[in-house]
Design a protein that fits this description.
Length: 234
């Protein structure tokens, strides 16, 4: 089978995965813009608001190993589509919170779904890249970055027209679910997936090389988060 025909068969799952990355970015971009609004609406201090941001981060940490377990059972394709649906629904949850307590819970669920879909979609994307026989992972991450931009701009447009975070995030949730539905249809008959093992462990002790890479990623994300939080206060 030549590369052209082989890649033609993979075009649909590649588009499907791109859509999932786009949705993931849209949700995060919208969340970042809405955080100051949640503080004002609920009358929270910066320290109180930080609890919701911490809950979001904790949710992400819990979602990642849970996703690894699900991928090992269902395969990366099915896990990605299932978790993307959950993520799309969770986008609107913070806007429904009437108090700090419920905002913390909503942020925890949103972070949980975000961390989980991150692992699944990157695993599925890696499987597609392997079968594509060319480095295409950057195109998926570009879709996530573009989604972040669109999500942030969308919420800005909503606010500029006098509507609140609930309206913006609800519409974004509906759009996300439509895009995920399209992705599911595109990926339905795709004969590509990361190998899954029903007996696989959800956690394995990382090697020293992986620990080094992980530490570097942690520092990069820490800096990114600090810059993002500083921007929210200006």
């Amino acid at each position: 089978m030549n590369d052209f025909y082989h890649r033609r068969l993979l075009r649909a799952p590649r588009i499907a995965t791109t859509l999932i990355f786009l949705v993931q970015g849209m949700g995060i971009g919208a969340w970042a813009v809405c955080v100051p609004t949640f503080r004002e609406t609920l009358g929270l201090s910066n320290s109180s608001l930080s609890l919701s941001l911490l809950a979001f981060a904790v949710g992400g940490l819990l979602g990642m190993p849970a996703s690894a377990w699900l991928v090992s059972r269902l395969g990366s394709k099915s896990a990605t589509m299932l978790l993307a649906l959950a993520y799309g629904i969770c986008i609107v949850l913070p806007a429904l919170a009437p108090s700090l307590f419920t905002l913390v819970g909503a942020a925890l669920l949103f972070g949980l779904s975000k961390g989980a879909v991150d692992v699944a979609m990157n695993t599925f994307g890696a499987a597609i890249q392997t079968n594509w026989r060319a480095p295409i992972m950057s195109s998926f991450h570009a879709a996530a970055s573009s989604g972040g931009f669109f999500g942030a701009v969308w919420i800005g447009v909503v606010f500029a027209n006098g509507f609140g975070a609930f309206t913006g995030l609800l519409i974004l949730t509906l759009v996300s679910l439509v895009l995920v539905g399209a992705a599911i249809r595109l990926a339905l008959g795709a004969d590509v997936d990361a190998a899954h093992d029903q007996n696989a462990s959800a956690f394995a002790v990382p090697s020293s090389a992986l620990m080094g890479i992980g530490s570097l990623c942690f520092l990069v994300l820490l800096i990114e988060g600090a810059i993002s939080e500083e921007a929210k206060h200006h």
